[in-house]
Protein: Aspartic proteinase
Amino acid sequence: MPSDGTSVSATNILQTYTMAVNIGNPPTTYSLLIDTGSSNTWCGAATAYNPTSTSNDTGSTVSVSYGSGQFSGEEYTDQVDLGGGLVINNQSIGVASTDEGFQGVDGIIGIGPVDLTDSTVSSGQPVPTVTDNLYQQGTIQTEMIGIYYAPTTHSGTPNGELTFGGIDQSRITSDVTYTPITSTSPASNYWGIDQTISYGGQQILSSAGIVDTGTTLVLIASDAFQAYMQAIPGSKVDQNSGLLEVPANQVATLQPLAFNIGGTTFKFTGTDQLLDQSLNEQFGGTRNAYYSIVSDLGSESGQGLDFINGYFFLERFYSVYDTTNRRVGFATTANS
Structure:
């Protein structure tokens, strides 16, 4: 089956994905980090913003803090072209005057829920996201995004895809399982879901958390992480990388890590739980060691945001972000 919606390429830079976004007319191309965990779109971190005939300085300032960085600057509206005919008129963008934590990218394309833009702009108004505007301007018929990511060991590999307004059926090997946005706060402000995680058939967490392309690892609440670590004899957190090091003699006996979402179980094999060794040094580790891509969120469960299914999860499963029906979907792929 062909895809419904319009698909554009995404580039794997080994800890996250970026996409090329053209802003202005004539356009400047920016490499923007794809973030389902925030909702403002901004540029100017590396490549300077170039005002053109379509630029409008709104007179407002904009400021957003992230888990690992921040930016602040001026709000403009401008023409934003995502490729494939996905052109947005009068999209609110931030133009960074200061930023930290964004080496190697020009900014962010924020595709989280619109409420995350509350209080980010000095005018006090929420800022429609790129997806909101594609829908409101009639470019897509359903306000949803399908995301296909895939593992690679080479930075700059254009092996990902975002489908605006639909799902690329050619990428999935199962039906899509949908689950409603969780009612548990603060996860409910994001693409938040309820999920049960088990290791080797033993439940280690059943709670609310978020699906976030802007986070690299699979992060779980500290008590769940302790249970996971204790179930892998001899494993310990490596002081250099911060990753969980798995002893070589335990690699072959790693048990499945299962994520139950909406009644469907999505499984990580032992191999799926391990960082590809060719990437060890990039993550601050030692070349021949074995590291888990599951790590400690840094807070105990029961806080209302007890896990983050990040980039390494999304490389294994197709994900769907459906604003129209307030739900998140998952399906298996060739990488599952």
Notes: The chain has two domains: 6-164, 172-332. The first strand starts at residue 6 and ends at 12. The first helix runs from residue 130 to 136. The helical segments are 130-136, 222-230, 311-314.
